[in-house]
Amino acid sequence: MSNEALVTRLREHLGKAAVLTDSDVTDAYSRDMMPLASAGKPLAVVLPSDVEGVQAVVKACAEFGVPIVPRGAGSGLSGAANAIDGCVMLVLTKLDQVVEIDAANRLAVVQPGVVNLDFRNAVEKHGLFYPPDPSSYDWCTIGGNLSTNAGGLCCVKYGVTTDSVLGLEVVLADGSVLKTGRRTVKGVAGYDLARLFVGSEGTLGVITQATVALKPLPQLPSTFVAGFSSTEAAGEAVARVVREGLVPSLLEIMDATSIKAAETYLKTDVGAGTDCKALLLAQSDSGGEVARRELAALEQICVDCGADLAYATDDLEEGKMLLQVRRVVLTALELYGVWLTDDVCVPRTRIAELIAGCERISEEVGLRIAVVGHAGDGNMHPTIVYAPDSEDEFARAQKAFDAILDVSLSLGGTVTGEHGIGRIKREWLAKEIGEVGLKVHRQIKQALDPGNLFNPGSMFSL
Amino acid sequence: MSNEALVTRLREHLGKAAVLTDSDVTDAYSRDMMPLASAGKPLAVVLPSDVEGVQAVVKACAEFGVPIVPRGAGSGLSGAANAIDGCVMLVLTKLDQVVEIDAANRLAVVQPGVVNLDFRNAVEKHGLFYPPDPSSYDWCTIGGNLSTNAGGLCCVKYGVTTDSVLGLEVVLADGSVLKTGRRTVKGVAGYDLARLFVGSEGTLGVITQATVALKPLPQLPSTFVAGFSSTEAAGEAVARVVREGLVPSLLEIMDATSIKAAETYLKTDVGAGTDCKALLLAQSDSGGEVARRELAALEQICVDCGADLAYATDDLEEGKMLLQVRRVVLTALELYGVWLTDDVCVPRTRIAELIAGCERISEEVGLRIAVVGHAGDGNMHPTIVYAPDSEDEFARAQKAFDAILDVSLSLGGTVTGEHGIGRIKREWLAKEIGEVGLKVHRQIKQALDPGNLFNPGSMFSL
């Protein structure tokens, strides 16, 4: 059966406009935001607009033995949504409805193509809050968030995507539709299949709908910043925050390199005259007196750990300005070249050691590495800067990327905190989970996708 | 290969004292606390004391083709730990070590045989809190909690067992040891296998160790009670608590039948002179002014919904006395006969409808049904009382048990909120998850346990 026949079949099911084959167009769908990963040439890009359309695509591809790479907005950072040669790119962005908001039961039903921010705004109108907030929240989609089990800044208090998922609708390898999970808060009827599909990076099925739990809308945030003359001191402060049981709604760290980049970009002195080598930024969304008390406790810890600068505010605009320093880091790093951002997670007591490891690697490879991260979770994003036109620097950046993963594992951490394995960390997954872990992954993959057509070669190979 | 040869092999590996075959002794291990489930005669009961012992049992049973039923303390309420004829009962109570408490990273490593309460006490010494608190917490084990994904009273604020799990060690069907998950708060390296094994009721592998996240120790609880002249009013109050975003650390409901039983048993007037048909009991563990504010908000909602009685206290002893009314219900019901407790979970707006359904069923079958439950989660335990010596009443109790599940499904609920499917709700699992859901369950079971030796026939049949 020829490729043409498959395209014809897909057009019969989805209509002409939803099946793209012009390579100028399909190329635009062929890779995510991770420069390390290679991308193949898709046979076609399809944009179904309902679950029946997804079923038709899956069934047709199964019949023709053609692999399927599911894709949301393409904001991923692991190459998990990159095309492989001859695949059908199954783009879910037209399944873009917020199907239901049940405020009384604090849940919503949402399709995968809805942009995270649009979903947040939709539930906020009902006084509700959808916590997962990856940095790309203004353009990434819920489907991608589910497939990568995305995190974000507020995980420290509210958990990651999987912690919000109650149920899923998934198109399986044979084209049948699985409805798993529930609309109730609790439930133990059968295996927790929903959480098996969440984070499976499109290798087990295509998520076409999710039922998610929502939180009460928190209070407006109060913001706190502390500057330290060493990363060790900042790391100790984070460890003490954890040990003393404080749970801020945001707790970010920046190392000296990222501070300098942000200062240069914003033309400001972040340390306000102090010798600032590490910055902690925190928020409390508990409101009023409680927020003040939480931030005062944070301040006490930071001062005890030797902070040269400690400042809290409940002024919203001022808080935004302070956070801006963290938010501009990646943009600011473009002053020096292009960047490659890594993603590791270490026990929260080992953050300073991870930053020290990155400094060592930076010297070894001769490239700037800025470390920013979600300190409250130990989830760090060391970001390597290299010249866009230098193959040598790119090679050294790749070396640094791997060396950082090695440091994370040696500190008892993981090779990915929230970006996923995709096509760039496959051998690292094997290192982290070992032969037995890999065996179980393969058993489950073979059980649910016997033809190996769902995103084959992402995460691990059969 | 004979049964004797298997017993000899098991004794070689575990020592004589850890392999029991005297039927007087093995009978004591052959069933859990659910009277509806039948129990077979085990070939042997084995009590290994380390992971190597568990591996030896699994390998020997695989070689001899003998099924294994893993078991903790036997406090289960679904028959999931009941013997099947000729099986080896794999009792995990000798793996009873708290391996590590890492207070700085707020995590612990624990073996399955540790009693829930002992574990709570161990981490409390470090100022830490392990939330899952099933009613049997003073004798159930962590392994059973993991296998059933146990809940409890504090789920409304802190989630169920799976929400605390970071990683697991599991002995697989071929005797190999899987280490899955991590010690970090976040991590997306590979499938979420830990949460697949949690709640799988011993059908996929034998959990020999868990790494769990701990919470800061909460403040001492303040307690609130409200009495209503109708369940509708109490149900409306629960719905409003959810809608207004209040998150108490406990929110329990009692219907008229359970109130009357408790009153008779405790020789007290729960309603303090009012015509009390439904009771809400709540706690806040936020401490001080915050707790007072949370309970005041609760009180306002209850008064708005027509409560005849509303009372809050931050006196610990008084709070315990108030909660005692809830805690004695099952014991109090023994005044009337023996009981059979059901376990359903409905959307939190449908609690009053569920109670009304139970009242209807009670009239139909002519048996007393008392409804108590975790109102904050919608997780209800309608408890049917019948005469111990009446086969007819037992048959009607079974009929009521099923009718309650039917009502729960019709209200958009699930057939089990926290007790599990086990051997008593298999056909109900099929009804709830449907053919496709069952197909995926079987695919996963066959992939991980191709010989179908782990607790075969529990949850579903192949």
TrEMBL record, chains A, B:
Gene3D superfamilies: 3.30.465.10, 3.30.70.2740, Vanillyl-alcohol Oxidase, Chain A, domain 4 (1.10.45.10)
SUPFAM superfamilies per record: FAD-binding/transporter-associated domain-like, FAD-linked oxidases, C-terminal domain
Record protein name field: FAD-binding oxidoreductase
The FAD-binding PCMH-type domain, residue ranges: 38-217
GO MF annotation terms: FAD binding; oxidoreductase activity
Domain of life assignment: Bacteria
Short name of one Pfam family: FAD-oxidase_C
Cofactors, names only: FAD
Similarity annotation: Belongs to the FAD-binding oxidoreductase/transferase type 4 family.
Organism: Amycolatopsis regifaucium
Keyword annotations from UniProtKB, A to Z: FAD, Flavoprotein, Oxidoreductase
Family matches, as InterPro entries: FAD-bd_oxidored_4_C, FAD-bd_PCMH, FAD-bd_PCMH-like_sf, FAD-bd_PCMH_sub2, FAD-linked_Oxase-like_C, FAD-linked_OxidoTrans_Type4, Oxid_FAD_bind_N, Vanillyl_alc_oxidase_C-sub2
